[in-house]
Amino acid sequence: MSLFRFAARTSALSRAAWSVRSVPRAFVPRAGYASSSGLSKDSIQTRIFDVLKGYEKIDPTKVLTPTASFAKDLGLDSLDAVEVVMAVEEEFSIEIPDAEADAIQSVDQAVDYIAKTPEAH
Amino acid sequence: MAPPPTSQAIKSLYHNMLRSSQSFSSYNFREYFIRRTKDSFREMQAESDPTRLSTLYAAAQRESGVIRRSAIVNQLYRGPKLAVELQDKEVEAREMEGHALETGLERGNN
Q1: Are B2 and B22 in contact (CB under 8 A)?
Q2: In this predicted complex, what is the ipTM?
Q3: A77 carries an active-site annotation
Q4: Is the pLDDT of residue B87 over 90?
Q5: Which of A1, A27, A39, B5 lies at a C-alpha separation of 20 to 30 Å from A102?
Q6: Per CATH, is A41-116 categorized as 3.30.1380.20?
Q7: Inter-chain residue contact A86 with B19, CB threshold 8 Å
Q8: How far apart are CA A115 and CA A98, in angstroms?
């Protein structure tokens, strides 16, 4: 008998513990699986411009255009272009595969790549 | 003799080496290997002799593996950040901490 009483008591205790634990927490909004990356082209472009302005070989006072080519307009060689692409990777915390990193030769190509990459944020 | 590397291969090696150099956790090693990688690839860019170029490329490939492995070891034994690499936010946090400590001391004295 005493054993049953004990069992009842422990179960009551544990139920109390459960009820404390099940207090509803504040709802944490999370990105839905079906939503897009949520970056607008404008914000991507301004962030890429900031990255370019921070790069040592580009004059920060120079006016950047959305269609500027790394080689022709910004005067970067192929190794500089690799460094710029790396800086962009870091800014959006993604890793661009080599084949696609090679194809990025201008600002608008970089913007397009980020826009179609869902992991970018 | 190995054929001279394509520019695509050089660029992808450069990318990989810079990436592994950046993954060092200690500031001095990180900055040194980034600088060194950049210098060695600039040298490769200025080279016109194809046999010399493939020698440089092979050396860079070997070095890439060394850097990758030592970066991993360096990450295992990471220490606290140096004062030079603290971000503004962290500096502010430190100052706040110091301030709290000081006021706490004053309160203790009074």
Answers
A1: no
A2: 0.72
A3: yes
A4: no
A5: A39
A6: no
A7: yes
A8: 18
Residue with tokens 């050089």: B10
Residue A6 burial by Cβ neighbours in a 10 Å radius (0-12, 13-18, 19+) = exposed
Selected for mutation to probe chain A from B7, B11, B35, B39 (highest A CB count within 10 Å) is: B11
Contact A38, A29 (CB under 8 A): no
* Residue B62 identity: R
User: For B4-32, how does the pLDDT look when each residue is reduced to its tens digit (9 = 90+)?
Assistant: 888 889 999 999 999 999 999 999 999 99
Long-range CB contacts for residues A113-119, cutoff 8 Å, separation at least 24: A114/A39, A114/A44, A114/A48, A114/A88, A115/A37, A115/A39, A115/A41, A115/A44, A117/A37, A117/A92, A118/A36, A118/A37, A119/A37, A119/A93, A119/A94
CB contact under 8 A, B11 and A83: no
Tell the burial category of A8 from Cβ atoms under 10 Å away from its Cβ (0-12, 13-18, 19+). exposed
User: In angstroms, rounded to a whole number, what is the distance separating the alpha carbons of residues A33 and A35?
Assistant: 6
**Contact indicator for B83, B36 with CB cutoff of 8 Å:** no
| In the block, residue with structure tokens 């699986």 | A33
Q: Which residues pair with A69 in a beta bridge?
A: A106
**Do B24 and B30 meet the contact criterion of CB atoms below 8 Å apart?**
yes
